[in-house]
Amino acid sequence: MPSPQTVSASLWLRLIVGLVSVSLLAVGAASVALYVRFKAKNSEFREQTLHNQAALIADYLKKAQEGPLTLPPYVVEEFKANSGRFAVVDREGRLLAASEGVTAPLAAINTEKTRDFFVLEPEQERPYFGLSVRAPFANRIVWVQVAFHTGNIVYDSVLEEFVQDIAWIWIPFVAVLLIVNLIVARIGTTPLRVAARQASAIGPGSVSMRLTEAGLPADVHALVSAVNRGLDRLETAFDAQRRFIADAAHELRTPVAVLKAHMGILAKFEGHAELVEEISSLERLVNQLLDIARLDVLQVEDGDVANLTEVATGVASHLAPAAINARRSIEVIAPDDPVCIRGARDYLFRALRNIVENALRHTPEGTTVSIMVEADPPALKVADRGPGVDADQRNAVFRRFWQGGRDQKGGAGLGLDIAARTVVAHGGTISVGDAPEGGALFTMQFQAMTDGPAKPNGPLREFQLAPQPVQGL
């Protein structure tokens, strides 16, 4: 399951990508719409300018008399100043008047239209936009043609200046828009991030915790409220399951103990040893069920300190009789100084006991199971001389009820799961590899203590419990 930090980073990545995409699309759409509108207005203004210039000449023609046509100087200078051209053409296409350099009509005359736009594209010159307008002159009809370079009309210049001097404003505008959107998104997602942090703190040991509902927006409140109701149902089911396991284990302990005692006083019969072994396996299963029930409420407090060497020697002493009866040995290898961690001693004891019991079942007779305590970093290691664990099964051995090659000798597949969950609850890691002398090497590694109470004192020496002859075996 991804961590809350990973979920938060993924959420922010999606928000940033979404906001950037939406902002760019909005700015792009606005830019395109503005450009299209500007171009339309530009065309409209160009046409109006051409029409006004043509009307200037047409108005003069209405008052002119028949004869050679000479336009007033102010008209000629107007076109010359703006690099424009004009021509007055009769129905037969003869040139009646024209600007300097014009020797023919600017465009072909369309006698069916009163107004006709055209474009001139002279070689090595910019294109001209032009207009032909029908006008009366001395009791006949002529056509006034005017044309200007692109860019010489005022609106073309305005458009160019807009692109060069004003369009750059989009860049800071988009940047400010994105920053504002991110700030708003962060403020809007604060309740979700708070709820995510609270949800990440809920675990088997804190199933009664709930997400805060006060001060939340309506839409977020509905989600948090639904999650809390779901947690209520999960807590009820979790408590029922835990109580059932604990009650069943407690109820089974007494009949198992009585059955074991009766087997001890009964006369030996065929299959007696096998039956005793099965009862021992049943007793171990009951104890593991109790361990599971206790582990569900494990919380390591700041003041909890456990001496790993004391845990190791305690487990060795506890399992020594079983090891001797099975003709195996247990040894503890530890430094002289205490190795302390923040942890619950009883839980660590049961976790290590499960691993050592597992090792005793798989190491051959006459061999030794080694419990090693290391200080830097703090760790407990258990090595046996058995067949080891295949590389492709090393993750599976810590699953509950896993029935692989190492779990087929009377075990229920709970011991290593209990050990793994205990180590994880202490903030450590657990792994299995190959022992130097063959067999499996289980390693429980913990975090070092940076502060806390003084280290406890106690005899920390290497010792070995050697197998002794047992009568009747």
Short description:
The protein is of the alpha+beta class.
Structural write-up:
The protein is an alpha+beta fold and 473 residues long. It has 3 domains: 4-167, Beta-Lactamase (2-Layer Sandwich); 202-297, Helix Hairpins (Orthogonal Bundle); 299-465, Histidine kinase-like ATPase, C-terminal domain (Heat Shock Protein 90). The chain is 49% helix and 16% strand. It is built from 9 helices and 13 strands. The strands form 3 sheets. A 6-stranded mixed sheet has the order 11-12-10-9-7-13. It has a 5-stranded antiparallel sheet with strand order 2-1-5-4-3, covered by helices on one side. A two-stranded antiparallel sheet has the order 6-8. Helix 1 (4-63) packs antiparallel against helix 4 (170-200) and helix 8 packs antiparallel against helix 9. The protein is rod-shaped, with a radius of gyration of 47 Å.
Quaternary structure state of the chains depicted:
single chain
| Unreliable residue runs | 452-473
Secondary structural class: alpha+beta
On the 0 to 100 scale, the average pLDDT is: 76
Topology-level CATH name of the largest domain: Heat Shock Protein 90
The count of β-strands is 13
Features:
single chain; 473 residues; alpha+beta; Beta-Lactamase; Helix Hairpins; Heat Shock Protein 90; 3 domains; six-stranded mixed sheet; five-stranded antiparallel sheet; 49% helix; 16% strand; disordered C terminus
